[in-house]
Design a protein that fits this description.
mainly alpha
C-alpha cells in the first residue's frame, strides 16, 4: 500500500533526486588544478638543471661556471637561466599530455566508439531500449553516460501520459544537451594550458635566443681581440634556448591538436546518437 505521509513522500522524492544527480556526475577523472603540476615541474626542472646538467663532471676542470662543456648536458647547462624555465614548460606539456591521454581513454569507454554508436542505433531501430541501456553500462565512458541518461529520460517520457508529444521531444533534446554539457568540461580540462604553452614555449625560447646573441655581440664589441670563450658561450646559449623553445612549442601543438580531435570525435558520436534517440521517439510515438 502506498504511503500517504507527506514526509515519507518528500524523503522518497529527495532520495530519487539524489540518485539521479549521482548518476549524472561525470565519471571522467583528471587533474583539477594544473597549478600544482606546474610547481612540481618547475622543481624538477631546476633540480635537473642544477644537479644533473650542472654536474662538475660535465665540464673541463670540474668548473661549471668557466669550464668548457664535455657533453650535451654541459652544453645545455650553458644555455643559462632560461633553460630551467623552458624545461618547466616542456615537463608541464608532457605531464598534462599524459593526464589527458588517460582521461580521454576512460572517456572513450571500453570498446570502439564507432561500433558502440552503430549498436545503439540498431537497438533504437528495434525499439529495444533496455538492451541499449545495458550496452551503455558495459561500454562506460562519456558517450555511454550521455546516452544512458537520455534513455532513462526516454523511458520516463514513454510512460508519461500528461505531456504532449512536442513537449516530450523538447524534454529529450534538453536531456541530451544537459548530459553533454556535464561531460564537455571534463573532456577539455587542461587543454587551454596546452594551447597557451604552444606559444609561450616558443616565445621564451626566442627570449633566450636574443639574450644569447646579445652576449655574442658584446664579446665581439670588446676592445682588442674578441673573447672566443664568451662568443661561443653566447652562441651556445642562443642555440640551446632556440632548440628547447621549438621542441616545447611543437610538442604542445601536436598534443593540443591530437586531443582536440579526439574530443571532436566524441562530440560527434554524442550528437549522432542524441539525434537518433529523438528521431526514434518521434517516429514511434
Amino acid at each position: 500500500m502506498a504511503s500517504n505521509d507527506p514526509k515519507a513522500q518528500s524523503a522518497a522524492t529527495s532520495a530519487a533526486a539524489k540518485i539521479k544527480k549521482e548518476e549524472k556526475i561525470s565519471q571522467i577523472r583528471g587533474i583539477k588544478n594544473a597549478f600544482f603540476v606546474i610547481i612540481a615541474c618547475a622543481i624538477c626542472g631546476v633540480c635537473i638543471f642544477l644537479f644533473l646538467m650542472g654536474n662538475p663532471s660535465n665540464f673541463e676542470g670540474g668548473d661549471p661556471a668557466n669550464g668548457h662543456p664535455l657533453n650535451l648536458a654541459g652544453t645545455v647547462y650553458k644555455g643559462g637561466f632560461i633553460v630551467p624555465i623552458l624545461m618547466t614548460l616542456l615537463l608541464t606539456v608532457i605531464t598534462l599530455s599524459i593526464e589527458r591521454w588517460i582521461a580521454l581513454s576512460s572517456a572513450s569507454g571500453k570498446g570502439n566508439t564507432a561500433k558502440f554508436v552503430a549498436a545503439i542505433k540498431a537497438d533504437l531501430a528495434a525499439n529495444n531500449i533496455d538492451a541499449a541501456m545495458k550496452r551503455c553500462k558495459d561500454q562506460k565512458g562519456s558517450v555511454a553516460s550521455v546516452v544512458y541518461n537520455t534513455l532513462v529520460k526516454y523511458k520516463e517520457m514513454d510512460a508519461n501520459t500528461v505531456l504532449s508529444k512536442e513537449q516530450k521531444l523538447t524534454t529529450l533534446r534538453n536531456e541530451v544537451e544537459e548530459a553533454t554539457a556535464l561531460e564537455m568540461p571534463s573532456l577539455s580540462q587542461n587543454l587551454p594550458i596546452l594551447a597557451t604553452l604552444t606559444t609561450l614555449g616558443t616565445l621564451v625560447g626566442l627570449l633566450g635566443t636574443v639574450m644569447g646573441m646579445i652576449k655574442s655581440f658584446q664579446a665581439l664589441a670588446n676592445s682588442g681581440s674578441p673573447d672566443s670563450t664568451e662568443l661561443s658561450t653566447g652562441i651556445s646559449e642562443a642555440l640551446v634556448n632556440t632548440a628547447f623553445g621549438i621542441a616545447t612549442g611543437a610538442f604542445a601543438v601536436i598534443s593540443y591538436n591530437f586531443f582536440t580531435n579526439k574530443i571532436d570525435n566524441l562530440s560527434y558520436a554524442i550528437d549522432e546518437i542524441g539525434f537518433s534517440i529523438v528521431a526514434t521517439f518521434a517516429a514511434t510515438h
